[in-house]
Amino acid sequence: MEKVSRRQAILIGSSYMFIVTIINLPAQVAQVDKQGAWYDIPTAAAAAALSLCLIWAVMRRFPDQDYLAVLVNHLKLAGRMLVLLYMFFFFLISSRDLRLLVDIVSVSLLPQTPTLLIGSLVVFSGAMAVRAGIEVASRMAELFYPVLAYAVVFMLVCLTKDFHWDFLQPVFENGWQGWLRGSWVLFGYLGEVIVLPLIFTDRTFDLKRGLVALGIGTLMLELSFVGTTLVLGSEITARLMYPVYEQVRQIIITDFLDRFDLFIISLWMPMMFLKIAFDLYVVCHAGETLFHRVAPGRHLTFPVGLLTVASSMWLFRRSVDVIRLNWNWTVFTLVFALVIPACSLVLLLFRRAPAR
User: What transmembrane ranges does the database entry give (predicted)?
Assistant: First the structure.
C-alpha cells in the first residue's frame, strides 16, 4: 500500500465528513430542531465515535490489515458478503455526492451546461486521482482542506457584525424529540468517518487519530452551523436549499470583491472532487479485497466511475431527491457504522488473533 501519513489520514477523515454535511444538512436540521444544531452535532459525533471504537476493537486483534481485509480473511463467506455490502454502500455515497456537486455547479457557475457533461468531467477527474494513487489524493487534501478551514473562520469573522445572538434562543424549543431527530439526520453523514479504517491499516489509522479527525470535523460543523443560525436565523435557514451558500453571499469585503462566494466555492469544489475520488477508491479497494488479482487503479476505476455517473442521474433525477434521501440515509449509516461492526466484533472475539 502507498504510504499515507497519519496527519494526512486525519485530514481525509475530517474533510470526508465535513465537506458534504455543510452544504446538504443545515436546512433539514433547522426544520426539525430549529436553532438546536449546536447540541445536535456533538450527539451525532458521539455515536460516530462509538462506531470508530467498535471497528478499532476488531482491527487491533488482527494487525496490518484494514477492516475490509479482516472481514474477508476471518469471516470467510459472511465476510465477503459484508464487504460486498460496504462496496454497494459507498457506491451509493459516490452517486449522492456527485449529484450534489453537479447541482451546486449548475446553480452557481454553469447554469447552461448539461448536468451529464458536468458529472462526467467530475468523475473523470476523480478517476484520474484514484489512478494516481491514494498518496497523491491525500497530499491534495493536505493542501486544500486547511485553506478551506481558515476561509470558514475568516467568513465568520467577516459576518460578526451581522450576528444576532438571540437567534440561538430558546434552547430545546422542540424538546427531546427535536434533539433526537436533528441528531438522527446528522449521524447519517458524520458516521461516514468510518472510511478511515476501511482503507488504512493500523499502521496509518488508530483510534486516537480517528477521534481527532472526528473532533476536527465536528468543530468545523459547529462553527458553520452556528454561524448560519446567527446570521440567517432558523426560520430562514429551514426554507433555503443551501443556507451556507446564501450566508457567504452576504459578505462584501470591498467594492471589487463583492462575490466572496466564488472564492469559497473555488476551495470547496476541489475538496468535493477529492471526496468523490475517495468514494471511488473505497469501492475499488473493496473490489480488490474481494478479488485479489484486480488492481483498483487500473481495472475498476473507470467502470465504477461510469456507473456512478449513470446512477447519480437515475437515482436522483432532481436535487430535491437528495434532500428526501437524507431522512432515511441514517438507517444505512446505522447498519454499516454500528450494527455490522458490533456483530463482527462479537463473532471475531471467538477467533484466535495471530501473534504480533
Answer: 9-30, 36-57, 77-95, 115-134, 143-163, 183-200, 212-233, 262-287, 299-317, 329-350
> Left, alpha or beta for 318 (phi > 0: left; psi -120 to 50: alpha)?
beta
pLDDT in tens, 236-260: 888 888 888 888 877 766 555 566 7
CATH number of the domain within which 259 lies: 1.10.4160.10
Strands (E) in the chain, as ranges, are none
Q: Which residues of the chain have pLDDT under 50?
A: 1
The residue range of the domain holding 198 is: 6-348
8 A C-beta contact, residue 294 and residue 300: yes
CB 24 within 8 A of CB 323: yes
* Rounded alpha-carbon distances, angstroms, from residue 95 to 112, 140, 316: 22, 22, 8
Residue 140 placed within a domain: yes
User: Which letter, b or e, does each residue of 266-279 get, where b requires 16 or more Cβ atoms within 10 Å of its Cβ?
Assistant: ebbbbbbbbbbbbb
How many Å apart are CA 283 and CA 292, to the nearest integer? 14
Q: Which three cell numbers stand for residue 195?
A: 472510511
The predicted model scores a pTM of: 0.91
User: Residues 65-91, buried b or exposed e (16+ Cβ, 10 A)?
Assistant: bbbbbbbbebbeeebbebbebbbebbb
Residue 234 CA from chain centroid, whole number: 23
Domain count, the chain: 1
- Calculate the average pLDDT of the chain: 87
327 burial (CB, 10 Å; 0-12 / 13-18 / 19+) is middle
